[in-house]
UniProtKB/TrEMBL annotation:
<feature type="domain" description="Fibronectin type-III">
    <location>
        <begin position="542"/>
        <end position="631"/>
    </location>
</feature>
<dbReference type="InterPro" id="IPR003961">
    <property type="entry name" value="FN3_dom"/>
</dbReference>
<keyword id="KW-0597">Phosphoprotein</keyword>
<keyword id="KW-0880">Kelch repeat</keyword>
<dbReference type="Pfam" id="PF13854">
    <property type="entry name" value="Kelch_HCF"/>
</dbReference>
<dbReference type="InterPro" id="IPR013783">
    <property type="entry name" value="Ig-like_fold"/>
</dbReference>
<dbReference type="GO" id="GO:0003713">
    <property type="term" value="F:transcription coactivator activity"/>
</dbReference>
<dbReference type="InterPro" id="IPR015915">
    <property type="entry name" value="Kelch-typ_b-propeller"/>
</dbReference>
<keyword id="KW-0539">Nucleus</keyword>
<feature type="compositionally biased region" description="Polar residues">
    <location>
        <begin position="526"/>
        <end position="541"/>
    </location>
</feature>
<dbReference type="InterPro" id="IPR043536">
    <property type="entry name" value="HCF1/2"/>
</dbReference>
<feature type="compositionally biased region" description="Polar residues">
    <location>
        <begin position="488"/>
        <end position="497"/>
    </location>
</feature>
<dbReference type="GO" id="GO:0006338">
    <property type="term" value="P:chromatin remodeling"/>
</dbReference>
<feature type="region of interest" description="Disordered">
    <location>
        <begin position="518"/>
        <end position="547"/>
    </location>
</feature>
<dbReference type="GO" id="GO:0035097">
    <property type="term" value="C:histone methyltransferase complex"/>
</dbReference>
<protein>
    <submittedName>
        <fullName>HCFC2 factor</fullName>
    </submittedName>
</protein>
<keyword id="KW-0677">Repeat</keyword>
Length: 747
């Protein structure tokens, strides 16, 4: 929601402090030391359980080979595994807090944590090599290569009477200190900067740097200033790469301003930078406090999960896919088995009011042309201010600014430009050109006013109802996913969703193929002997590749969230069709200039989806295929509910909204374990557990003991329910009964 709120904390609430140590371990936060007031420093350790907003003052055991850490500020406090590593800082030698006698530290401590909550105690590790010099306001990060090597802690910069820019490495396994040799241009000496690890890179931003020309290390009484320079260190090659130089002008406010004492946090591959202060010298009358939030996308997003089907009609699909963290939206594409002529040959059915490419007001745009940023000297970098309309620079890095900023005490607050919609079946373009669906809109990085924590508890309760198997599960929420469309009449075979259906009671799954090896397929209508009894069916598709023209992908649109209702797609001009097969990085066309094509009944469509962030469009997901319903067959049952009893569960549902005649019977199916499933996990095998006119049934413990637990996303037991009229069975509604704590998972 990008909304700030003030949690109602309780327990041993710590006093306000500055320059403390701070680590996040799952849902708990540990805070150590800091300056409580001028000249008075702390060595207290507090733990916050963020799931309950409960503070607790913890008292670690003293080390067996020395004294516990003395009160200090400006130290580093880094987490790796179940241990925190404390290094350096600034202490006050005087017992009188009004008489501050600074002492720079280079002591090193290890704090062992208990799992979940609490700590064991401090220890003083025996280290080898030369210890880094005493310092405060430095940074420390821990990095471990995935393929080879032991975890290493890197200390950079800091203050010891003058600014530092030396790099130190500690091998945590051998406890050996060393000075790694680096390549590239080392950043200016600095303190009160930030350093964060994303992938194999340590990103260093801001801080106090020497004012002197050339960046020489200044004397203790020299002048210094805040900087907005930005670099990263490749931790595998120890090479420094500059992204934003210290002298780079930014007249358009497209980059974060100079600052020190800010905070930065990595979420996935995105780096958020918040607040800080800017100024010259260290005089309060020369400093300006910031209240702006920026983020940096460091690489393109990963591929989303396969598109899943919630519901199908004769001319539409309701789709969903798993969320990808820290993305701006999703590009959904389809390919139709039936030939689709280019844009010039098909009359349009209307266009959106505004372009998908940009947004009005303070929203972030997703696409940019290179000439928009002539002042940026680094070709691999892209910056984005939400009040601008930007274009994409290939192979870029994007920085985006919140529209909530404060300069010189004057605060500008922009209200969120998008409202949450709860309409479940609408599919339209909003004011920013994004398509909306039933999930809440994704807002730009813009923050709203503080709220109390009352709403948080309500959200937690709602989340528990969603995953709790005792609660009702609706077919329109996240626990409902794929719905199989099938129009099998009597014993005539028909090809649906990448599988061949033998008879009226067969249920099939959608076909999934890796896009890298994908070719065009035809699906012959061939009978399949399942060889199962007791209404147990396994669907398998004999397929043969056919060399035809290149597969053409058409844009459905860009969606802010991970669901969509699809009834149309955009037709591309002939000259753009050759580019529609790109798996990633393709330019998004201006949808205002394109016409749209409606979906046809009884047609197979293939879908793929890619996530979008400031660096561009990421790789596409694996391909799913679904078939629209044939007119005259009943729709899928709706509002499926699952209620758990002691020795069984109760399934209930509502009749189809469009029965297309009299409903003769319903069938319910359960996905079961089988040897065939081990060979091909994507093809579920189902057993019919109910057939009758009632809109409810009981699933016994004996039946559940044979259930297959699907791990394609969250662990779940899969049910399907379909209705039959005079023409035959219509599409099935699939429900995933999430298996979690206390749900009695069956394996």
């Amino acid at each position: 929601t990008n909304q700030w709120f003030l949690p109602a904390v309780r327990g041993d609430i710590p006093p306000g402090c500055a320059a403390h140590g701070f680590v996040c371990d799952g849902t708990r936060i540990l805070v150590f030391g800091g300056m409580v007031e001028y000249g008075r420093y702390s060595n207290d350790l507090y733990e916050l359980q963020a799931s309950r907003w409960l503070w607790k003052k913890v008292k670690p055991q003293a080390p067996s080979n020395g004294s516990p850490p003395c009160p200090r500020l400006g130290h580093s406090f880094s987490l790796y595994g179940n241990k925190c590593y404390l290094f350096g800082g600034l202490a006050n030698e005087s017992e009188d807090s009004n008489n501050n006698v600074p002492r720079y530290l280079n002591d090193f401590y290890e704090l062992e944590l208990q799992h979940g909550s609490g700590v064991v105690g401090w220890s003083i590790p025996v280290t080898k090599g030369i210890l880094p010099s005493p310092r405060e306001s430095h940074t420390a990060i821990v990095y471990c290569r995935k393929d080879v090597g032991s975890p290493k802690m890197y200390i950079f910069g800091g203050m010891c009477g003058c600014r530092l820019n030396d790099l130190w490495e500690l091998d945590i396994e051998t406890m050996t200190w060393s000075r790694p040799e680096t390549k590239g241009t080392v950043p200016l000496p600095r303190s009160l900067h930030t350093a964060n690890v994303i992938g194999n890179k340590m990103y260093v931003f801001g801080g106090w740097v020497p004012q002197s020309a050339g960046g020489e290390i200044s004397a203790p009484d020299g002048e210094w200033k805040c900087t907005g320079s930005f670099s990263y260190l490749n931790l595998d090659t120890t090479e420094w790469i500059g992204l934003i130089s210290d002298c780079q002008e930014d007249k358009s406010n497209l980059l974060p301003g100079p600052r020190a004492g800010h905070c930065a946090v990595a979420v996935g591959t995105r780096l958020y930078i918040w607040s800080g202060r800017d100024g010259y010298r260290k005089a309060w009358n020369n400093q300006v406090c910031c209240k702006d939030l920026w983020y940096l996308d460091t690489e393109k997003p990963l591929a989303p999960s396969q598109v899943q089907l919630i519901r199908a009609t004769t001319n539409s699909f309701q789709l969903k896919w798993d969320e990808v963290p820290t993305v701006e939206g999703y590009l959904l594409q389809l390919h139709a088995d039936s030939p689709v002529p280019p844009m010039s040959g098909i009359p349009g059915t209307g266009v959106p009011e505004t372009s998908v490419l940009s947004s009005q007001g303070s929203g972030c745009s997703l696409h940019q042309s290179p000439q928009s940023l002539p002042s940026v000297p680094y070709p691999e970098m892209k910056v984005d201010h939400p009040s601008q309309t930007n274009n994409l620079i290939p192979n870029n890095v994007q920085v985006s600014l919140s529209s909530n900023s404060k300069v010189e005490g004057k605060e500008k607050v922009a209200a969120p430009e998008n409202k949450v919609t709860q309409e479940t079946m609408k599919n339209h373009t909003d004011a920013t050109g994004f398509k909306e669906s039933n999930a809440p809109s994704l807002l730009p990085v813009c923050t709203s006013s503080a709220q109390t924590s009352a709403n948080v508890g309500e959200l937690h309760d709602l989340d528990k109802q969603t995953v709790n198997p005792d609660a009702s599960v609706s077919s329109t929420v996240s626990s409902t996913q794929t719905m199989v469309t099938q129009q099998a009449v009597k014993t005539e075979s028909s090809s649906t969703n990448g599988a061949v259906v033998k008879d009226e009671t067969s249920l099939t799954t959608f076909n999934s193929k890796s896009e890298a090896t994908e070719t065009a397929y035809v699906m012959p209508s061939t009978r399949v002997n399942t060889g199962q009894t007791n209404d147990s069916h396994s669907a398998k598709t004999p397929q043969r590749p056919v060399r035809t023209r290149d597969r053409r992908w058409y844009d459905v649109g860009i969606f802010k969230n991970n669901s969509a209702v699809v009834s149309q797609f955009y037709l591309l001009p002939e000259e753009m069709l050759s580019n529609s097969n790109k798996t990633e990085g393709a330019d998004v066309p201006d949808y205002r200039l394109l016409k749209k094509q409606d979906l046809f009944p009884g047609t197979v469509y293939r879908f793929r989806v890619a996530a979008i962030n400031g660096c561009g469009v990421g790789p596409f997901s694996k391909i799913s295929e679904f078939k629209t319903c044939i007119p005259g067959f009943p729709g899928a049952p709706s509002t499926v509910k699952i209620t758990k009893s002691v020795d069984c569960i109760h399934l209930s549902w509502e009749p189809p909204a469009s029965p297309s005649g009299n409903i003769l019977e319903y069938s319910a199916y359960l996905a079961i374990r089988s040897t065939q499933l081990q060979e091909n996990p994507s093809q579920l095998v189902f057993m019919r557990i109910y057939c009758g006119l009632k809109t409810s049934c009981i699933v016994t413990a004996a039946q559940l003991s044979n259930a297959h637990v699907d791990y394609s996303s969250r662990p779940a037991i899969v049910f399907r329910i379909s209705a039959k009229n005079e023409r035959g069975y219509g599409p099935a509604t699939q429900v995933r009964w999430l298996q979690g704590k206390g749900s009695g998972t069956h394996s």
